[in-house]
Each structure stands twice: as C-alpha cells, then as structure tokens.
C-alpha cells in the first residue's frame, strides 16, 4: 500500500531533526562516567523485585550517580510557570518586558471529524462496538470492542479504507486491545482481549496470520509492537510476560515463532516500547541491536534483541504511588553534534531521560540525564519532536514541555476528548480476571492504546471521537495572538523568534540572518496593525486621562520594538505620520521619546520631530525633560538659534552650554552669559536667589570640566581641543575687564565674582586643575599668574572674610608644600595674613579665625612663620588650639594642660587628653612626669570641672599622690564630692584598687557625709568595709546621726545601746508630732495638717524600723533582756497618746493606737501575754482611768489568744486522727490473711503436708508463694538479724526471677521477693483425734523499715498527702530556715492576717 502525498510529505518534514539546535544543548548534562560490563538476562530475571530497593545499577552500563555533576540531577519546579494560563496574559500589564516569556498557542488541537463520525456510525449501524485502541502511521487504524479494525486514510476526507475482521471473530477473540503498524505501512498487527493476535495486509485487507499460541492462554494482549525489522514483533500480555514474535514464510506457508523475553513470574511488565528509527536514521549504528525498553511495576529494562539477547540496563523507580502508570517513549536527539536515541520514562510525577549511544568498541552505554518533575501524576508520555514532550496527567490535563529548559509551554484540558482507558484489558476481564492486584491497580489509569504518536503528530482516542495534536508553526502562533488582539504578547513572541529564544519552533528555516529577516518583516507588519488598531479603538469621548492611558499602553511598545529592530526610519516616518493624526497619540509619542533619548537609544531626530518636540515640551512646561533630551541629542538635528533662545528664556543652562560647546565649539560665550547674570548681584552685595545659586554652581562645575578636559554636562571634549579650551578658559578668567565693562568695574571681575560666590569651591577647582600641570610651561605660567591675581584681589581687601582669606592661604600652603612646587609667594604676605587673623582687638569670628589659621598650619603653612612670634600672637588672641598645635610640635605636653584649662569650649576634654597621654607608650618618662606635676598643680581646677572624671584619673594614674591631692583641696564641699566619687564601689579593672591610708580616707568621707549628705550615710556604711568601727561611731555621734549610730552599735554587738539610740529617735519624732499638734491647736491653719501628715509618715517608718530591729535582736536574748527592749518601746507609744491635741487630734490618735497595736502584736511573739497586760495596767496613763480606755487593747489581745488556742486544738485533733487512721490501716494490712497460689512448696514441689505425724513450719509470702521453713533455710533466703524472732525471709522464686542473689544481704533491695507481710504457719499433730487436723497458728506478723516506707508511699499515692505529712514538712522547713515569723517580718510590708475560727453550737 503506497503512502498518500500528504502523509509522505508530513512524514519527511516532521522526522527531520533540526541540527541547528545542537549548540543550545548543555554539554555538562552528559558528562558522566561509564560502566562497561552489562548484566545477563538471567541475573535480571532471577533478582527479587523490591519497591523499597534503592537505585542500584546491578553491573549495568549505567553510571554511578555519585560521580554526576550536582546540577545534572536537579529537578526544577514547574509549578511557577504561567505561560499556559490565558487569564495571566490578560492580567499582564502591557509594557515591554524582555525578561518575560510568551509562548502563545503551541499546539494545534484538531478533531478528526471524518474518523469520529464513522466511528459513531459504525457503532450504531453495523454494531462495530466502541473504540478501544488506535495507532497512526501512513494510515490511522482504530480497534473496536467487537473485534473489528477500521483503517482510515490521513487525507482530508479521512475515508474508511478497510474494515478488518468480522463480528464472528470478535465474539471469539474479544475486543481489540492493541494495534501496531510496521514502518512501511504494509502490515497491521491486532492483539485481542482473549489473547489472540492477527496480522493483516493493509494493501488488500487480507488476513495473513492468526496467532493463538504465542503466549500462555487466558491472558489478554496489552501491547503488540513491530520493530524496525518487519519480521520481528514483540507483545506483552496481562500476565506481565513479554514475547518476541518472529514471522517466517517458507514455501508459501506463513508461520510465527515465539520466544519469551521476560517472565511475568519475575515481575510484571505493563509497558513495552521498541526503538523504531525514522527513515533518515535507518542506518544508525544503534539500530543493529534492535533495542527494546520494558517497564515493570518496579524497574525499567533495556535489552537488545540482536545479534543475541542481551540486557543493557536496568533502572529501579523512585518511590511512587502504586497506582501510577509506567510510561516509555523513544526519540532520536542531537547531543554534542551526534544524534542518538533518548529514552524518556516516568512513573508518577518525575520524568527521567536516558541517553543511549554506541561506542567504537561495540559497547552500548546508557547515560542518565537531567530529570524534571511535574506536580501531577502522569498517565501518558509522548515526544512530538526532539526537544518537546507532550504529557497527560491523571486529571486529563495536557502539558507541552520543553525538555532542555524544563519549561511548561502550554496546558490544555482534554476533558472533552473523553479518553478511552484500557482498564478492562489490564484486569483481563475477558478471560476471567486472572491478574495480580498490583497490575489491576495500575490498569485503572492505563490509556496506552488511546495515544499514538508518529512523525510529529499525536492522536488521542475518545469514546466517540479521535483528535490529533501537532505543533503550530511560528506564524500560526503569532497569528493566534493577533486574532485575540494581544498585540503586545504577539510582539514579545515574535521577538523571541527573532532572538532564537523561543521554544518548540516549527517552520523557521535557514541561517540566523535569514531567520531574523523573516521575523523582522512579520514584526513590522504587527507594528502597523497595532498602530492602526490603537487609533481605531481610541475612545472618541471621555476624559483626556483615559485617552492618554490608552496610548501609553501602545506607543512605548511601538517605539521599543522599532528601536530593537533598528528601524528608526520606520518609527519617525510611517508610524509617526499615522500617530500625528491624533493629538493625544502625538503627545504621548513625544513624551515617551525622553526615556530613549536619555538612555542614548535615540541620538538623532528628524527636523520635523525635533520641532514638534520643542513646541510640545515648551508649551506644556516640561523644561527639565526638554533639557535632558537636548544634552543627549545630535546637534546636527537641532535648530541652534531656536534652541538657544528657548534655553535662555527658560534657564536651561545645561542645554545652552551643550549647544554652544558641541554645535559651535564655543566654550567662552556660556561663561560670559552666566557671569552677566550673577556678577552684578554679587558686586552690589545683595543676597543670591536660589536660581542664582544654581547658576553659580553650574558655572563652577563647567569651569572645572573645561579645565579637566571633560565635556559638560557629560562626555569628553575632543582630544584635539582639550589644550585649546583650557587656554581659552584661563585667558577668560584672568581678563582685566569684561567686554562691556564700565569705569567703576574692578579689575579681574571674573575671578573676583567667583571668589565672592564660593571661595572654597573655586580654590578647589584650581587645586584639581593644578594637579594636572606637570611639564607644561604655558600652564605653569597660567598657574603663577592666577596665584598673583588671587593675592592681589584678596589681601588687604575688607570685602573678604577671615575664612575666605585663610582659605586662600591654606590653598597656597598646600601648593607650596608639594615637592615639585614652582610657585613663588612672598613670605611677607603670610606674616600679613597672620597679623590679620590674630588681631586681639577683633573679637568677631574668633572661632572662625582660629580654625582657618589651624587649617593653614596643618597643611604645611607653619614653615612660612616664625614660631615664637606665632605663639605670642596666638596667646594674645586666645587661640588655644594654635598654642596646643605648637606645643605638641615641640613636645611641650605639660603646657597643653594650660591650653585646655583656659579654653572655655574644650576644657572638659582635658580628662581624655591626660589619660591618653599617660597611658600611651609613645611618650618619655620625663614628659609624663612634667604632665603629672602640671596636673597636681592645677588639681583644684581639674576637680572643680568634674569630680567623677577626676576620681577616675586619680585611680588610674595618681594613686600615690592621693594624700597630697586631699590636702590641696581646701574646700570641704569640693573635697566631699571628690572623695565620694573616689571611694564609691567600682566594677572593672580598678574595682580592687587599694589606696594608701584608705581607712583614713573613708573616715574623712564619713565625717564630710554627715555634714553634706546625711541621707547617704546608711548606704555608705552598708557598702564600705574600710572604716574603723569605734571611730565611725564617734563621728556619727558627734553629728547626731542616730540611724547610722544605731546601725554601727548593732554591728558592734551593743544591742541595748543601738535600741536606746533608735528609741531616742522615736521620741524625737513623737515630740515633733506633739509640737505640731500644739501649734496647730493654737493657730488652726490648714497647712499645719500637711506638716502633721509628714511627721506621721516619718513616725511610721521609725516604728517599723525599731520593730524590725527588736525582732532581729530578740533571737539570742533571754526573757528579761527581751522585756528591756519591748517594754520601753510600748511605754513610749502609750505615753504619747495623751499629748495629742489640735484639729487632727483624732486622726493622729488613731494612727498612734494603730502603731501601738502593731507593737503589741510584734511583742506577743516574744513576751508572754500576762506580762504584757501587767505592764499595760501598771502604766500611769491607764492606771487612773476606767477600763474602757484600755478595753480595745485587752480585747484585741484576747481575740488573738482565743484564735491561737483554737488553732492549737484543731491541729492536735487532726494529728491524732491521722495517726489513728495510719495505724488502723497498717494493722489491717498486716493481719490480712494470705491466699497461697498452690498447695505445694515452690522449692521441693511437695505438698506442704509431707508427713502426717510431723509438725513443721510453713512460710507464706504476700506474692502467693509457699515454702517449707527448712527448704528456705537450705536456700539461704534469710536476711536481717540472726535471732529466731527477728529473722526476715525473702521469697526464693521471686528473687530468682529478678536476678537477685538468694542469701544474706546487708542492704536488702526492694522487689517482688520482699513481701509486704511474712506469715509463719505452724503445722501440729494432735493426739486426741483419730484423724489429723490441720491448724494454723500465727506466730509472727511484722514489717521491716523498708516495707513500712513502701507501704506509706503506696498509701499516699492512692489517698493523697496526709495532714501529718504536711505538718511534718512544715516543721522540717522551720528547722531548715529558722523562725518563719521572724523571716517574714523582715520583708518589706508582710502582714499575717488571721481571723478566729467559726463557732459551732452543740
């Protein structure tokens, strides 16, 4: 059967590989070591299949992955690709972005209408059945469920050419389950659901062979495939086996020999794919091996059928879903300028690639390439050309993937196709379903026979239709976007074709230049259509902003692509002439040119566009944009007169300078124009406007550029003009008068103007220019001339400030200090400037003049002066920084101390200076000693400045001179501040510094602190450890600092003396309170209440302090000594209550009563209640009155007594109850009867009653085991005391189980072998009865100490903590921490608030 012309041309065109794409392949991807020894087929068949098995090469020629490049195995995520999402293209902003990638519609999806209609018609009219399989070659063959094979042509009519088979054979063989056409399209193989295979002649429709014994019966044919050899085919059945079919014809008789290639018992194969070469590669060396790829449920195998059967590679899968369908696909790919087959395979979401090539030695090497991963489960895998794959996932989404970049180019939905699945055949339902569960699970998603690829076409079979997918050529892809009016995307895609960056390109032939020319023509066509579409779609009415936005989405794109294509003529002629018709489009076009001109992408504009540009920018006030454009444009395209006029009128000085320089080589006229503007203003002494300042700065920069050989505002002056321009600028600057000068004009007006505008910057410009003067004689003459003019203009001129004059001489000093200096400056001028700067009569600008002179000296000007005279003038002028500079130069560091002390602005820096000088190693010992002497001489001034920093300085450097410093400081307040800083606690390197006579210093400080800061005394006494206690007590007593005295006496151990001082303080406070109440009663003023409240607060603090003191002191005193402390305090508090008078007497009395009760409560912990009551009753204040006066005190004490008595009784009851409960439960546990597990001894295994007439003891443990006493004694199961009554026994069996050694032990361990109770049972024989009676006598029931502890733990675990245990813990806590009450009272404001318990009536 011959090919049709259409199919032949399609075959030849699609099968050719584009060798121009070879260079874009990454060579590193294939740089992998090789293995030469392939395995045998037997080793593969005999190995165990294990899905958990890692990747093992099994002696194949596949490489070791450890040696691969890191990037060659990486998989890139494809989820981020959005090129296939149409909605994304709609959201994309229409601007030109070269980094974004547009792929357009890559696939052409066509419905085979003729074939689809005939499939449906055959099913309805002749009962051909539903379609089950499809294959494509020169023709398209479709198998049906009733065993028929329909052969259609591939021409436009898609006519039915042959109907192979009958419904009778269909009923016998079942549905067609697999189809294959050989390479010359002359034979068709049909596999059936019941296992038969038929071969048909496609030329005449004759049945050539019916094969029924090629494989085991009862299994369906899953795949049948021709190889390149028309006499060899392979098939795969539902048993997972693979067979080779060899067709023979001997003497007119056709036969078929079958050979098993892979047995399903070793692992079920569910997909096979022979390597079939296109017509152009029929002579490829690899074809001689007739390679076959097989995919089982766990691995991939590649075997060679020729010249002998041989396994070349195995590759196990990664972990994947058991229901994932293995896929295989071969394709010849150009790699490293060689074309070799590549096998793509996947199971799940990852696609792997294996490059197969034949070496010169005849060995086949399989090389793993970079894999890629999709976020979906793949059920179909096909090559559509050598760089592009088409995948279908389990959601019936089709993905077009570019293999080199691993980019998803397009995604389509195949839901409308309604793919046919091969599940019935994988489950072998036609033969009874005798397949494995794993194969049936894979078959749920299997659609192998519904997808067929051939020569750049992929055919998909649906339940009622057939569809074909092909790649669109590049023009079609662009036209698809054009039809959707996506012009920006169309241009982007076309540009990717132009640059060779597009993917899946079809139809673009020739070399690079030819391809670019073809694409350029297409892009120009798109640009014109885009412009026409934009003008047509422009809204005629509405806001101007809407129209502007419309064209802003279009015009920049047109400009960008015209410039990319280097077609400025097209942009400025045809396109601009069309856009001019719309005023908004014209405005947007002219404004969009700015960015391209500034970026130097457009350097020349036509005269018409330049004129329109000037008019538009000028009329819309876009002067800055106009200036930026002018300085980047070619001057030849400008109307110089018009541009200069516009620039001058609108102050576009940069543009004006650029036009004069570039257009007329005139570098002087711009300076004349700028000087004419700012000169008169500066001469008249008026302040400069912002515009004048900008103009002056531009003038300085322009002069700097001209003198340095650079063009303004950008670029460089032509090399042949550099020297000429420099000389012209110098000649202009040193002109004696300007061109239009008047009689009043000063000489050298231009230099004078620049000096008045910004002296420092003008001198900096000259300094940079002078750097370039080497051996140029004329330039050196200009240099000397300019310096002479500067001196002539500025010296003895009152118009210049000291800063300006100093800046000039600083500039001159720098120039004179250069080693190759050729300048001459009269030294008398420096003396004159020195006199001017150091004038003592002029107090104005003192700091400025000093700073100018200092800068002049630092740059080398000191060599121009007499140092003695300079120092004298500086001291007169109070230039202390100048003096410091000169002293340091002469190493007179001690004199610098005077400079700092005299300088009001820097005197606080003296501390850092002294510390650095004395710490750094660069100074001699004599210099440091002189500095130390100077500091000691001025120590009073230094300490007055900052006592804290002075103390730090003394600690670091003057520890041995402390006594001299103290004697030098005569002022007591100053001495106190200094010592307070010197002796305060420190952290750091000097925290442990020891000063000479440190005790005397601390006592001196204590004395001064009593005078100047008594509130700091206690803090000082707590932290300091260096004072002598007796001396300190005398000092504090001398100054009547009672609190400090009490603290010191307590430290000494004199408790009563400390108490007496504290009580005296309390009495003074009470006297003050009484005095305040008396004065308030007489005067009645309201401010007395405020003072009274203040005294009350002080009183509360005193009472609290003395109570805490008494609590602290009573711990080591007897009862009488405690009464000596507490009773005077109580007497003092009670005596003060009768003396309170005045407006606030009631409030004050209440406070005193509250404090008295507080004292009583505190006393009750140490003094008995009868003694306290007796003391109260003996008090004269209460002795003469009625009982009501002390009723409150007595009742409060009685309430406290009742509460404590009730608390004691309740606690006693709780303890008794707990003790009774514990003993009762313990007795019940010990006396409880034990139930043995068995009636025999666990050692001798005899009945516990061995003899009727013998009496022996039996021991029963709580674990249930029973023993004879003699047996336990033989096993040494006793521990504890040796006496009979105190012996403790251990269970022999439990001890043996837990690995315990049976026998005596000094420290018995807890285990099952130690019972909670051990019971001795005595068996006795009684003579009075005829029969023996068994009697149990309890002779011992005891718990050892360890058992008691364990029992307590169990009881607490089930019942919670007992009250006894809680009280025990509290008592232990008391023993460890001391008195809880005293500790709590020592805290800040702790109060134990107790209330009497509730009373219950009987």
UniProtKB/TrEMBL annotation:
It comes from the Eukaryota. WD repeats lie at residues 169-210. Keywords: Metal-binding, WD repeat, Zinc, Zinc-finger. InterPro entries: Vps41/Vps8 (IPR045111), Vps8_central_dom (IPR025941), WD40/YVTN_repeat-like_dom_sf (IPR015943), WD40_repeat_dom_sf (IPR036322), WD40_rpt (IPR001680), Znf_RING (IPR001841), Znf_RING_Vps8 (IPR056939). GO terms for molecular function: zinc ion binding. CDD domains: RING-H2_Vps8. Pfam families: Beta-prop_VPS8, TPR_Vps41, TPR_Vps8, zf_RING_Vps8. Residues 73-95, 1303-1326 are annotated as: Disordered. Residues 1313-1326 have a biased composition (Polar residues). SUPFAM superfamilies: RING/U-box, WD40 repeat-like. GO terms for biological process: endosomal vesicle fusion; protein targeting to vacuole. The keyword Iron-sulfur does not apply. Residues 76-86 have a biased composition (Low complexity). Belongs to the VPS8 family. This is RING-type domain-containing protein. It comes from Astatotilapia calliptera.
């Amino acid at each position: 059967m011959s090919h049709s012309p259409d199919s032949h041309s399609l075959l030849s065109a699609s099968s050719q590989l584009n060798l121009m794409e070879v260079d874009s392949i990454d060579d590193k991807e294939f740089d992998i070591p090789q293995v030469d020894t392939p395995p045998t087929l037997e080793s593969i068949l005999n190995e165990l299949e294990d899905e958990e098995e890692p990747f093992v090469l099994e002696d194949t020629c596949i490489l070791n992955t450890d040696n691969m490049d890191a990037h060659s195995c990486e998989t890139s995520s494809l989820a981020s690709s959005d090129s296939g999402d149409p909605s994304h293209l709609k959201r994309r902003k229409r601007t030109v972005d070269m980094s974004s990638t547009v792929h357009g519609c890559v696939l052409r999806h066509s419905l085979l209408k003729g074939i689809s209609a005939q499939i449906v018609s055959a099913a309805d009219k002749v009962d051909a059945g539903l379609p089950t399989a499809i294959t494509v070659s020169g023709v398209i063959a479709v198998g049906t469920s009733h065993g028929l094979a329909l052969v259609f042509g591939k021409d436009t009519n898609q006519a039915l050419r042959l109907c192979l088979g009958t419904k009778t054979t269909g009923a016998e063989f079942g549905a067609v389950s697999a189809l294959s056409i050989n390479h010359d399209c002359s034979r068709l193989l049909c596999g059936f659901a019941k296992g038969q295979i038929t071969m048909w002649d496609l030329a005449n429709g004759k049945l050539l062979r019916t094969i029924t014994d090629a494989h085991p019966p009862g299994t369906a044919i899953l795949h049948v495939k021709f190889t390149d050899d028309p006499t060899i085919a392979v098939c795969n059945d539902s048993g997972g086996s693979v067979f080779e079919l060899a067709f023979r014809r001997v003497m007119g008789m056709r036969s078929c020999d079958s050979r098993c290639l892979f047995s399903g018992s070793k692992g079920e194969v569910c997909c096979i794919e022979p390597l079939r070469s296109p017509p152009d590669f029929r002579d490829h060396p690899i074809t001689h091996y007739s390679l076959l790829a097989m995919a089982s449920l766990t691995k991939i195998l590649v075997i060679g059928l020729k010249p002998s059967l041989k396994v070349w590679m195995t590759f196990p899968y990664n972990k994947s879903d058991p229901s994932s369908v293995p896929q295989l696909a071969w394709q010849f790919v150009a790699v490293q300028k060689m074309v070799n087959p590549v096998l793509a395979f996947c199971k799940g979401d990852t696609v792997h690639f294996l490059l197969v090539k034949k070496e010169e030695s005849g060995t086949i090497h399989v090389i793993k390439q970079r894999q890629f991963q999709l976020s979906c489960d793949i059920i179909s895998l096909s090559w559509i050309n050598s760089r592009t794959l088409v995948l279908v996932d389990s959601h019936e989404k089709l993905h077009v993937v570019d293999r080199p970049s691993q980019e998803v180019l397009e995604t389509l939905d195949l839901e409308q196709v309604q793919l046919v699945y091969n599940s019935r055949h994988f489950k072998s339902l036609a033969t009874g379903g005798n397949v494995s569960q794993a194969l049936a699970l894979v078959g749920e998603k299997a659609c192998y026979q519904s997808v067929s690829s051939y020569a750049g076409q992929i055919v998909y079979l649906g339940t009622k239709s057939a569809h074909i997918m092909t790649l669109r050529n590049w023009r079609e892809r662009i036209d698809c976007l054009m039809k959707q009016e996506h012009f920006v995307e169309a241009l982007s895609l076309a540009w990717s074709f132009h640059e060779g960056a597009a993917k899946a390109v079809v139809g673009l032939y020739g070399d690079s230049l030819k391809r670019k020319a073809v694409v350029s023509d297409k892009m120009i066509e798109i640009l014109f259509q885009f412009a026409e579409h934009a003008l047509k779609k422009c809204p005629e009415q509405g806001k101007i902003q809407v129209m502007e936005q419309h064209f802003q989405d279009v015009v920049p794109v047109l400009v960008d692509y015209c410039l990319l294509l280097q077609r400025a003529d097209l942009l400025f002629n045809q396109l601009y002439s069309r856009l001019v018709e719309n005023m908004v489009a014209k405005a947007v076009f002219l404004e969009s040119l700015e960015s391209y001109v500034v970026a130097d992408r457009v350097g020349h504009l036509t005269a018409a566009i330049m004129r329109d540009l000037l008019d538009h920018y000028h009329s819309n006030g876009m002067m800055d944009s106009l200036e930026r454009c002018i300085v980047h444009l070619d001057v030849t395209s400008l109307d110089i007169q018009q541009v200069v006029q516009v620039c001058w009128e609108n102050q576009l000085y940069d543009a004006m300078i650029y036009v004069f320089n570039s257009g007329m080589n005139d570098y002087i006229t711009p300076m004349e124009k700028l000087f004419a503007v700012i000169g008169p203003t500066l001469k008249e002494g008026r302040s400069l406007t912002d515009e004048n300042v900008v103009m002056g700065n531009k003038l300085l920069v322009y002069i700097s550029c001209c003198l340095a050989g650079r063009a303004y505002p950008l670029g460089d002056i032509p090399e042949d003009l550099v020297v000429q321009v420099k000389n012209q600028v110098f000649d202009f600057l040193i002109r004696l008068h300007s061109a239009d000068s008047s009689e009043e004009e000063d000489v050298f007006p231009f230099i004078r103007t620049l000096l008045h505008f910004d002296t420092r910057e003008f001198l900096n410009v000259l300094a940079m220019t002078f750097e370039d003067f080497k051996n140029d004689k004329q330039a050196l003459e200009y240099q000397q001339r300019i310096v002479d003019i500067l001196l002539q203009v500025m010296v003895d001129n009152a118009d210049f400030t000291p800063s300006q004059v100093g800046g000039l001489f600083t500039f001159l000093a720098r120039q004179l200090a250069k080693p190759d200096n050729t300048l001459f400056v009269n030294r008398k001028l420096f003396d004159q400037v020195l006199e001017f700067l150091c004038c003592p009569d002029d107090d104005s600008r003192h700091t400025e003049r000093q700073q100018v002179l200092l800068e002049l000296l630092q740059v080398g000007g000191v060599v121009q002066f007499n140092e003695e005279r300079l120092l004298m003038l500086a001291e007169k002028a109070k230039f202390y920084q100048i003096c410091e500079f000169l002293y340091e130069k002469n190493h007179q560091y001690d004199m610098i101390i005077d400079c700092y002390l005299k300088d009001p602005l820097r005197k606080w820096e003296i501390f850092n200076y002294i510390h650095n000088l004395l710490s750094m190693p660069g100074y001699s010992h004599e210099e440091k000693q002189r500095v130390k002497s100077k500091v000691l001489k001025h120590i009073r001034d230094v300490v007055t400045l900052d006592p804290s920093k002075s103390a730090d300085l003394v600690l670091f450097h003057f520890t041995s001179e402390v006594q001299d410093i103290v004697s030098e400081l005569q002022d007591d307040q100053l001495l106190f501040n200094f010592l307070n800083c010197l002796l305060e606690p420190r952290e750091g390197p000097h925290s442990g510094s020891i000063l000479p006579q440190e005790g005397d210093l601390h006592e001196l400080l204590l004395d001064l602190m009593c005078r100047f800061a008594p509130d700091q005394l206690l803090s000082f006494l707590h932290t300091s450890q260096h004072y002598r206690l007796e001396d300190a007590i005398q000092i504090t007593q001398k100054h009547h600092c009672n609190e400090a005295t009490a603290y010191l006496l307590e430290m000494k151990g004199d408790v009563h003396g400390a108490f007496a001082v504290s009580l005296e303080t309390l009495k003074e406070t009470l006297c003050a309170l009484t005095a305040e109440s008396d004065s308030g009663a007489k005067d009645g003023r309201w401010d007395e209440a405020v003072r009274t409240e203040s005294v009350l607060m002080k009183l509360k603090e005193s009472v609290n302090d003395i109570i805490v003191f008494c609590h602290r002191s009573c711990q080591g005193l007897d009862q009488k000594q405690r009464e000596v402390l507490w009773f005077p305090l109580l007497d003092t508090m009670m005596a003060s209550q009768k003396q309170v008078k005045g407006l606030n007497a009631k409030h004050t009395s209440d406070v005193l009563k509250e404090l008295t009760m507080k004292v009583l409560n505190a006393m009750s912990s140490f003094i008995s209640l009868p003694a306290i009551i007796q003391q109260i009753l003996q008090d004269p204040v209460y002795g003469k009155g009625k009982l009501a006066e002390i009723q409150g005190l007595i009742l409060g004490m009685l309430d406290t007594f009742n509460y404590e008595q009730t608390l004691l009784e309740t606690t006693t009851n709780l303890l008794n109850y707990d003790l009774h409960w514990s003993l009762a439960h313990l007795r019940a546990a010990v006396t409880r009867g034990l139930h043995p597990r068995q009636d025999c001894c666990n050692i001798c295994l005899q009945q516990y009653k061995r003899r009727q007439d013998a009496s022996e003891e039996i021991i029963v443990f709580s674990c249930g085991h029973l023993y004879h006493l003699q047996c336990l004694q033989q096993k040494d199961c006793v521990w504890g005391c040796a006496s009979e009554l105190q012996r403790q026994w251990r269970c022999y069996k439990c001890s043996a189980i837990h690995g315990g050694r049976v026998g005596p032990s000094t420290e018995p361990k807890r285990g099952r072998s130690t019972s909670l109770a051990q019971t001795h049972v005595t068996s006795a024989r009684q003579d009075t009865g005829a029969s023996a009676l068994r009697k149990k006598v309890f002779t011992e029931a005891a718990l050892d100490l360890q058992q008691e502890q364990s029992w307590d733990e169990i009881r607490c675990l089930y019942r919670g903590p007992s009250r006894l245990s809680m009280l025990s813990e509290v008592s232990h806590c008391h023993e460890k921490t001391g008195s809880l009450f005293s500790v709590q009272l020592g805290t800040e404001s702790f109060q134990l608030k107790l209330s009497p318990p509730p009373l219950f009536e009987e």
